[in-house]
Every structure is written in structure tokens, then in C-alpha cells.
Amino acid sequence: MEIFKTAFLMVTLMLIFIAVGGYIGGEHGMMIAFLMAAGTNIFSYFFSDTLVLKRYNAIPVDESNAHGLYKIVSRLTQKANLPMPKIYIIPEEVPNAFATGRNPSHAAVAVTEGLLKILNENEIEGVLAHELSHVRHYDILTGSIAAILAGAIAMLANFAKVGGIAGQSGGSRRGGGNAIVMLALAILMPIAATIIQMAISREREYKADKGAAYLTGHPEWLASALRKLESYSNSYIMQNASEQSAHMFIVNPFGSLTNKLGVLFRTHPSTSDRIAELERLEQEIKRGM
């Protein structure tokens, strides 16, 4: 299923580029846009994870310098029958985590220093089980490419805005019409990017929570971690946080800001709903014992 989502994202990116390129530059613009879209798709498939990790200054670690963290990930990957992913620590006091990569054989999990400080071992295991569930379900490629797609759409929106301003200054009737269309695109394209992120993010968070619950056998570990993470995200914003990659994190790095904007453009389900579902799963698992 995730392969189809990824293909859909790539095709969507290409069509948006071609449509805007054609509107700005006709057939020549369409050709340039096609080449740009093809290049962006290829680049994002192979390097989107590297870009996201670099943005957050993630530092690779291994068993020698992060023994406890490595041990938890190793234990979970064996239980989940997954290859061992690369492990990164982000030098950031706000607790959060994400997974990235194009498939389970090329996966990475990243946690912030703040997460390691405020969570106990069981809670860290719950968070890592959540991220490895994303790896298991192939969510990570879709999420990584969505981040690149959102950035590309934002770039197109800026082009459209410049084109609209130039059209207005042109003064002709056709120029004025073009300006209106271009400015409309500048407004609508970022909204389209947000809708794409929401479509792939909300449901997959519930799936990853459920996967973590069954992988650890203790849904209450992740529920406890989410309570702490939500408290911090509503008080602090991560350094280098970007709207394009916010959907990749276990909790939204713009927690308090997103709540003020309302649920319409929220890339994550509410933490209270996630905790309620984990509590239901806890009772389900206990009944099955």
C-alpha cells in the first residue's frame, strides 16, 4: 500500500510542476518543469532521508557510544524481524523522534537528547517501537518524500507569487489575468501540500501506535511517553523545525501553534485520542493473555 502512496506522491509532484511550468512558460516551460520534477523524484527517493537528518544536525551513534539506546533498538528489531537501522541522536532539548529511509534495509531512527533525558527506559522503548512500526509498514519512504514534495510545492508557490507580482506590474489585461491566477496558485499550493501531509500522516500514526503496542506488549509505555512529549511540545518549539517535515515526528514539533490554528490543518491526530486508543489496546492485550 505504501508503494502506491509513494508513486502517487511522485506523480502528483510531477503533474504540479508540469502544470505550473506550462502556465508560466508554455511548452518550453513544461519541458523544463518535467525535467525538474523527474530530477526531484529521483533525488528524493535516494537522498530525502539524508536531507532530513542533516537539517536536524542528527549525529550517528552506535553500540560503543550509545549502548543503552542501541540495545533497545536491537532488541526491538529482532522481535519485529527487521534489519538493524542506523541510529541518530539530535542535539535538541525538546523531546521528539522520527524514522526515515527508503525501505527497512536503508532505514534510520533519530531521537533528540531531550527525549533520552525525560523518558525512562520503558517509555523510550515504546517510542522506538512506534518508529520501527513506521519502518515495518514502509511509512518512512512516503513520509520522507512528502517532506521533499511539500518543500518543492512551497518553492513553486514562491515562483507563482513572483510571477503574479510581475504580471500585475505588466499592466496588460492578459498580464492582469495571469497575475490573479499566479497569486491564487501561490495561496492554494501550500494548502495542497498540507492536505497531502495530513492524508498520509494521521492514519499512519494510529497504525504505528498499534504496532508499537503489540511489539512491546505494553501500550502503557508509549501512552506514558506521549503524555510527556505532548507536554513539552505545547511549551517549546524544536530548533530547525520545519512545516515540511513536521509530519515525520512522533508528536508535532509545532504542538502549541498547531492547536491554536485548530484541527483542520493538524498533521497528527490529537495525543489524547492516541492515548485513549492505546488504553483500549492495553485492555485488549490483557484480555488475550
Proportion of beta-strand residues: 5-15%
Secondary-structure-based class equals alpha+beta
Instruction: Assign a percent range to the helix content.
Output: over 70%
| Principal-axes shape call | elongated
Number of helices: 9
The number of domains is 1
How many strand elements?
Answer: 4
Spatial order of the strands forming the largest sheet: 1-2-4-3
Distance between the termini: 31 Å
Secondary-structure element series: HEHEEEHHHHHHH
Cα Rg: 21 Å
Mean pLDDT: 80
Seen as an oligomer or otherwise, the chain set is: single chain
Major β-sheet, in short? 4 strands, mixed
Uncertain segments = 171-177, 259-264
Domain Peptidase M48: 68-281
Cofactor: Zn(2+)
Protein name: Protease HtpX homolog
Binding site for Zn(2+): 130, 134, 205
Notes on the protein architecture:
- Its EC number is 3.4.24.-.
- The chain crosses the membrane at residues 7-24, 30-47, 140-160, 180-200.
- Keywords: Cell membrane, Hydrolase, Membrane, Metal-binding, Metalloprotease, Protease, Stress response, Transmembrane, Transmembrane helix, Zinc.
- One of its GO terms (cellular component) is plasma membrane.
- The chain has 9 helices and 4 strands, in the order H-E-H-E-E-E-H-H-H-H-H-H-H.
- The protein is α+β, with helices and mostly antiparallel strands and 289 residues long.
- The protein has one domain (1-166, 177-288).
- A hairpin with a 5-residue loop joins strand 3 and strand 4 (107-112).
